[in-house]
Amino acid sequence: MEAIYLFLLLIISLTVGFAIILGSSSRDDIMAHWAERRCDFDVLIASFMYKPSNDSTSAFEFASNNFKFCVGSKASDYLHTLFGALFEVLRKQMGAADIMTNVMKVMRKQLNTIYAPFSLMMEKFWNKFKQIGSLASRIFQHLYMAMKKAAATATASIFVALSLQTAVLNGIDLVINVIMIMLYILIALAFIFFLPILPVMLFVSMAVTGIDAGFPGRTGDMGTVFCFAPDTSVIMRDNTTLRIQDISLGDILLDGQRVEAIIEVPGSDSLYTLEGVVVSGDHRVWDSATQTWVLVKNHSEAILNGSSPTLWTLITSNRKIPIKGVNSILTFSDWEELPDTDDAAKIWETVACEILNGEASNTSVPIYPPCFDKTIKVQKYQSGLVPLSSIVKGDWIMGEKRWTQVIGICRREVKGFSTAEGNRITDGVWLKVKSRWQHLSGQVEAVPWKGLNLITDSGTFKITMANLSEHVVRDFTEVGWTNLSSTYTRVENAMTPN
């Protein structure tokens, strides 16, 4: 539609609207003088607004009748005005001649011929107008009924949702009640079956206590061995302190020892406090009173009241960690505890081989501890192959036969490698070759580099080299963290002075 037609349509709509507004504002006055004003143009357009309340016709019929009346009266007045004088002259002349009478008859017929089509056209127009009005009324009624149906549907939906919620809550209550009944039954059964074996349990408890006293640490989990709370103050070479979780590889500590590895493991709720230091009970500390290494839990001043979600420990060049206590400087052993000697390394290698392969074979003692290049890839759950450097504690990676969770990370500074840079791996790593665990063989060079190792719940994980070759390897603990306790006796013997 062209712009000019839109403009004309807008002008007409505004004119009609303005007329309706003016008509509504003076409705009482117009109805009081209806006979005089019923044919005014603005009243004629909005005549349906002035239908008396006692009129039985509809608004559209009232407007139609008024329009017909006004058209007829206006046409009659117009004709009388236009032809009145002429009729009077002719009327006077008709008495003089029959010819004039016939002429008037002819003219009257012509006027009737003109008025009849006009009246018929206007009647058709109002018939269409009434039909449109009736259709609009029906459409409005349908819309009104649809809105009521929609409101009813929404109300019904709300009540249905409330009913479903009530049903779900009742179902949950029923399930909880059933579970509670089952728990009561199980507790009753456990109590009934426990009573006969109570004397046996007392003997078992005494036996476990004796074993724990004779072989410290055998019943502990990984969070209770060799580890400190994250805010433990480590004394540096310049007598300043640094939190253990902020220590970096290569840092020099109080006695000149170099930090070779930093280890993060899961926490524990069974930690001890010794001079303000929160530490695991199976960690060894130098007792100045007895001039011997003792377990923290056996120290006279240690109190079992500590906990931490994450624990840290170090590996140093002299196997000692200087820690600042409340009243003095405490000296703890590091993670490995074993002295850095060939004999100690041979003892550990024998123990590990017996645990992994079931026998102590004549395996060679590696020169360097197990460590991997950060770029070596592992398969992370739902992420594909990713470099070791992107793995964090809690991730799931592929182990020997299943997914295994990373429960600790060891960052280490080592020397030596047996493959090209970017895929370096030390000779201390245990690899699965067929059905046996063995160390990597090959040329070892004394080149310093920083790598890392993982601690997993299964003790193994799978690596992918640059040439896409895959290998199953042991984690940082070598024997698996669940088997660490079985090595304590040998560690004890190795640390006993000759």
What topology does this entry show?
Blueprint: H1 3-25, H2 27-32, H3 34-37, H4 41-45, H5 59-94, H6 98-214, E1 233-235, E2 241-243, E3 259-274, E4 277-280, E5 284-287, E6 292-295, E7 303-316, E8 320-324, E9 329-333, H7 342-357, E10 377-380, E11 384-387, E12 396-398, E13 403-415, E14 430-433, E15 436-439, E16 448-456, E17 460-464, E18 470-474, H8 488-495
Antiparallel strand pairs: 1-2, 3-4, 3-7, 3-13, 5-6, 8-9, 10-11, 10-17, 12-13, 13-16, 14-15, 17-18
Helix pairs in contact: 5-6
What does this structure look like?
This protein is of the alpha+beta class and 498 residues long. It has four domains: 1-42; 51-185; 222-333, Beta Complex (Endonuclease - Pi-scei, Chain A, domain 1); 342-495, Endonuclease - Pi-scei, Chain A, domain 1 (Beta Complex), CATH 2.170.16. It is 43% helix and 22% strand. The chain has eight helices and 18 strands. The chain has helices spanning 3-25, 27-32, 34-37, 41-45, 59-94, 98-214, 342-357, 488-495; strands at residues 233-235, 241-243, 259-274, 277-280, 284-287, 292-295, 303-316, 320-324, 329-333, 377-380, 384-387, 396-398, 403-415, 430-433, 436-439, 448-456, 460-464, 470-474. The strands form six sheets. Strands 3, 4, 7, 12, 13 and 16 form a six-stranded antiparallel sheet that branches. Strands 11-10-17-18 form a four-stranded antiparallel sheet, with no helix packed on it. Strand 5 (284-287) and strand 6 (292-295) form a beta hairpin. Helix 5 (59-94) packs antiparallel against helix 6. It is rod-shaped and about 165 Å long. Mean pLDDT is 82; it is low at 207-220.
